[in-house]
Every structure is written in structure tokens, then in C-alpha cells.
Predict the structure.
Amino acid sequence: MCTDHQWINNAIRKIEADFQRSADTHLIKLDLPSIAGIDLYLKDESTHPTGSLKHRLARSLFLYAICNGWVGPDTPIIEASSGSTAISEAYFARLLGLPFIAVMPKCTARKKIEQIEFYGGKAHLVDRSDQIYAESRRLAQALNGHYMDQFTYAERATDWRGNSNIADSIFQQMQREDHPIPSWIVMSPGTGGTSATIGRFIRYQQHNTKLCVVDPENSVFFDYYQTRNSELTLQCGSKIEGIGRPRVEPSFIPNVVDEMRQIPDAASIATIHWLEKILGRKAGASTGTNLYGALQLASEMKQRGEQGSIVTLLCDSGERYLDTYYNPEWLAHNIGDLAPYADKLETFQQIGQLD
Ligand SMILES: Cc1ncc(COP(=O)(O)O)c(C=O)c1O
């Protein structure tokens, strides 16, 4: 427990000053003539200083932990992560001069581990993604440190009513568009924190927007949404880094989700390769999951003769995954044939239908 007000004040001031120096992320409108009247947007979270949407979460988790008195001048910070959150937390730990250890599955992208080390953090690797929680708790106890526990605290550390959270930012940036209130916002869950923030904000602001959450293969969230059985677990981890979990995470709030879909991993990967041709940039695989769900919704809206807008997230850049999602050998071995989905996406681009 930390009661050193001077240290707390100084730590908060440093984080707030860092926020003050930061700019918001862009909202990119995709050019898709085959769905005229339905506008599709990507909120580009890859442009945060630490390269993903997790920059927002890391800031909130540190503020929450410091204001709760859980972190002081000598507290080692431990986190369970699939990598992105750990990179962002390593950045904030360095800002505050605190040691940082990330507990991650050993399949985590090499580039992410290098970035954690770049910010002065240490990577502590375990065999499987369902082992990160217990190992983080054990390490925190052994080192007299603080286990940040994003999977529990993501939903409550973020100020969902506004205060420049991601949902607030999306609705602000949409104000001058043809369809300023999106028909759908689409997001994939890792902690579930971003989905919770968006879903709560939509309700709080009384918008007519629906939240569609898209889950990859090898994740319990989709089945949990159908059954509400919170005991569901899986042995194997998701192949889409950052999203899909082997247990029902406390930060995933099903009641604020209007619809859930499961997206095949091959569809997610085919979508980021398709997106590269439209955007000229590589994105991480979770962006593919998000966008494939958004394209399904756009296709269905077109078939019903509806117009409107759909917003989803570009969560992180594909440069982190050059040796996996952009490596044909890795893909052949781990994901399989992308061609059926590449064909579907080609058809979508021609006639605006994704079957
Ligand atoms: C690349 C990427 N995409 C999506 C997500 C999901 O975000 P959330 O944890 O808010 O559900 C994460 C979370 O770690 C991520 O790293």
C-alpha cells in the first residue's frame, strides 16, 4: 500500500502531462464503391506512441492502481498479457521509473517482446496462454509487486462515461459524416474492456448504435454469450493475437453487447491482406476479425436496402507480425488456406455481398 502523497501526485502529474502531449487517433473512411450509401470507418489505434489501442488501457490501469494506493515508488509491476498491453504498460512503467515484468505465452510475436525490452521491461514466458494468470499472481507475491490484472480491471479502470475514451472520440469524429450515428460499432474482445466501454457509452448517450462483438476461433466468449456459463475454459489459445481467451474474462460484459459473431481465423487473416490493398498498410490480425464482421454487417445492410455507417477498430499495425500473419509458410502451417475467403472478399469488392 502506498500513502506517499507526494509520490502519488508526481506520478499522476507525469501521466497526465504525457496525455496532454498526445494527439487523438485518426478515423479512416474506407473507399468501397460496391456498398454505396453504407460508410465504413476504421478507428486507427495503431498510431498511439506504443502502437496499439492498449495505450489507452495502460494509462487507465496505472491511474487506477496509483489512485487506489496499490503502486508506490518501489513497486514492481507485473502483468499477464498477449503482448500489446505489456508494451504500453512498459512505456508507462518507464515513465514512472518502476520495474516491469510481462507474463506472456511463448508464442507471442518476437517484435512485441523486443518492444517491451526496448521500454526497459522484462518478458517472462509461459507455455500456454491459460497459464499467464497464476504465474503473474505468483511473481507479484514473490517480488512484493503489483499484478495489474488487465483482464479483471480493464472494464472498471476506463472512464466509460466519456473523458476522451475511445467511444467518445468515435462519436465526436463522426459528427460531420453523412451518417454521424453509426448503425453498428464492431469490436473483438481480449479483456473485453474496449467493448464494455463502447457498449456502456452507447447506452449512456442514448444512441441508436448497436454493438457487435466478433470472436475468433479458440475462444470462450462466443459460447459464453450464448450460454452465460462463466465456467467455460479451453486448453488451447487463440491464434489471433490480442483477442479470444481460454476463460471468461471478468472485464467482458455480455449485457452491453447487441450481437456476437464468430469469425473464422482464415477470414480474419484474408481480410488484413485484402485491407492492405485498399489502405496501403498492414494491420494486425484482430483488425481482420473486426473488419470481416463489419463487412458481413455492411453486406446484410445492403441486401435489406439500408443506408448508414459502421465503425470498427484498426487495433495495431501488421509490422509486428511480419513473421506470422504475413509469412506464407507460417500461415500454411497454422491457419490453412486463405483462398476461399480471399475470393469472398473479392466478390464483396465487386458487388458488395459477402456470403
Ligand atoms: C491487438 C489487439 N486487438 C484487440 C484487443 C482487444 O481489446 P480489449 O482487451 O479491450 O478487449 C487487444 C487486447 O489485448 C489487442 O492486443
User: Anything to note?
Assistant: The chain has a mean pLDDT of 96. The CA atoms of residues 19 and 260 lie 33 Å apart. The chain has 13 helices and ten strands. The first strand starts at residue 27 and ends at 29.
